Amino acid sequence: MVNIKHVRSSNASLAAKAPGMVALFIGGTSGSGMGTLKQLARHAKAPKVYIVGRSQHSATLLLDELKSLNPQGTFIFLETEISLIRNVDQICREISSQEKQMDLIVLSTGYLTFAGRQETDEGIDTLAALSYYIRLRTVHNLLPLLHASPSARVISILAGGKESAIDLTDLENRKKHSLTAAAVTSTTQNTLAFEWLAQAHPTITFAHVYPGFVATGQMERFMRTAPGFWAWPAWVAQKTLVPLLYLFAQTPDAVGERLLFIATSARYPPAEPGGEGFMAAMPKGVAVAQSSVEEGGRGNGVYRLNNYGESAPDSAVLKDYRRQGAGKTVWQSTEGVWARALKKAT
Fold first, then answer.
1. Distance of alpha carbon 126 from alpha carbon 131, whole angstroms
2. Is-above-0.90 flag for pTM?
3. Are residues 131 and 243 in contact, defined by beta-carbon separation less than 8 angstroms?
4. Inter-residue contact 160 to 304 (CB < 8 Å)
């Protein structure tokens, strides 16, 4: 584990970098994403940051805080219902019309409900849309801008290292849906899709991160979705158990320190480094992190990381999926879901 002193020193060194890092945060208005965003505003030199969320009015205080943390920074809020693929496309077109490169993408949208499968009006399970489909659509759309950066990095904050077996013939969980199945499928697909993309885009770092237990407010929102008979026990848990659990949770700002380190440290290089860019030098005595696949002394530029920024050990499930070529299966299925969603939206 990298000592927190090294993490803070690395983050602070960003102020000595050239100004103008361009970043995109989807899910940056709460939780781990917000914590990372605030840390970036605190340390980066005059960054330009796009923040995507549902309500600009609700984000007013956050935007004011970001500006106070970094008066030279530019913070642009883009209001949309981000669970929809067509809205992701519109946001990406807007950004692409304004920018020549994208240095950092941080993805942390999420959704939990007791209500079972809840589909968007494009026909995608909302949990899967927010945890996987809109995240990878964003990356896919902005690949040209990422390639223009000398040190591009994509961070998906979900459950790196927690991948499990999934049904490759039912990646949308239509045959047998549950909250657990949807979460596990999104987790495993995030990693397999990153590994697939990294093969074709070796100058980009892809990190799938498990942030640990963070006090985000999502547990309370989850409890409020309990139906019928379960509403009363959920209310009791919301008032008693959840506050107790939060005693052991990390704050968004605390987890944001380590996530900013992951987002900006040279400890996590791509398969083919293109230049220093906005990356901070690796702290002395700290080794390069282990990629999800390493062959001949070269990593693939994909990192499955725990809440301390350490690489998760490889798993038998992922090894087997790689032998099967499951990354291609996942990507082809993903493209099919996107195409169907956009067709339904027209």
1. 8
2. yes
3. no
4. yes
